[in-house]
Amino acid sequence: PLLKPNKSKVVKSASQDNLKDVILCCLKVGLNHFETARFYGSSEVQFVDALCNLIDEGKIKRSDFIFQTKIGLLSNTKTAEFAKFWANSWTNVSKLGYV
């Protein structure tokens, strides 16, 4: 079965510090587009947390990067289902202000 990651634990792990370093290195060399999806495990939560921390620390600005996330849709997805998927994802990414 698919395991749901514990958001509070994953953002306190050593891999989170590594992600922040990777983001800073990417921005330094001109890579400013970060792409993820809610269904990639914990990456959506981790990216947002790392980016927000770097903004709060004054190391980057929100205008320094493009953040893209995706929601899982099928060709027969109804509007209400789309709204639910989007709301779930927006819960994770809303701290960035926009995607």
What would you say this structure looks like, in words?
With 99 residues, the protein is mainly α. The protein contains 4 helices and 2 strands, in the order H-H-E-H-E-H. The protein has a two-stranded parallel sheet. It is globular and about 40 Å long.
Shape: globular
Q: Radius of gyration, Cα only, in angstroms?
A: 14 Å
- Fraction in helix: 40-55%
- Kindly state the mean pLDDT as a whole number? 88
Low-confidence stretches: none
SS element count, helices: 4
Order of helices and strands: HHEHEH
Number of strands: 2
Question: Which terms summarize this structure?
Answer:
two-stranded parallel sheet; single chain; 99 residues; mainly alpha
